[in-house]
Amino acid sequence: AQSVAQPEDQVNVAEGNPLTVKCTYSVSGNPYLFWYVQYPNRGLQFLLKYITGDNLVKGSYGFEAEFNKSQTSFHLKKPSALVSDSALYFCARASSNTGKLIFGQGTTLQVKP
Amino acid sequence: DTAVSQTPKYLVTQMGNDKSIKCEQNLGHDTMYWYKQDSKKFLKIMFSYNNKELIINETVPNRFSPKSPDKAHLNLHINSLELGDSAVYFCASSKYLKRGATTGELFFGEGSRLTVL
Questions:
Q1: Rounded to whole angstroms, what are the CA distances from A47 to A55, A62, A77, B23?
Q2: pLDDT tens-digit profile of B57-108?
Q3: Mutation for B interface: A34, A100, A109, most B CBs within 10 A
Q4: φ and ψ at A96, to 5 degrees?
Q5: Quick check: A86 and A110 in contact, CB under 8 A?
Q6: Residue in chain A nearest B106 by alpha carbon
Q7: Residue among A41, A99, A103 whose CB faces B101 most closely
Q8: Contact present, A13 and A89 (Cβ < 8 Å)
Q9: Which residues have CB under 8 Å from B81's CB, separation 6+?
Q10: Number of CB atoms found within 10 A of residue A21's CB
């Protein structure tokens, strides 16, 4: 089955430092991969996606993600974290056939001042 | 203007009751969804409608019945509420690409927190 996994429940980073939130995907079909962010008591917001093309994808709020086929990963990165980046981040995968978006279990990012 | 709006935002009710959550989107999208987020923040798709037609129906108890009167609205009715139904229910919408397939860029509502006592 097509799925994604986020191996870390929580990531802690100091403000100004680079951040990475990890995501790996199962090798099954074409991976259409996404990152979403959820701030407390809010709905999810789309950050970026990879469908085809350049492996480095740039998204909202200075985030980017790198599609790595050999490692089956799609890690979310930002060069310099802000306290306001603290939120719950979801990696997701869409099936091209069903349109179903399957979410990972989420990773809480804490950026400390 | 709110793109995807859900009502009510909070709902507290007793076991056995029937309740509905409404969702409306003004983005002109053809596809709408209901997702359930449990207490561990895990998100699971429940239903998806494309232009009023049901296209995704996950393994959800029959007590849950979605209804789409038009492509801008998708409501969720829940009969005989159980304790395990307590969760945050998110409505979302997206553009339509082809049958069942979307761009994957979903626009979410703010969620409806259901608490069953």
A1: 16, 9, 11, 23
A2: 887 899 999 999 998 999 999 999 999 999 999 999 988 766 555 566 899 9
A3: A100
A4: -70, -20
A5: yes
A6: A46
A7: A99
A8: no
A9: B13, B14, B15, B16, B17, B18, B19, B63, B114, B116
A10: 26
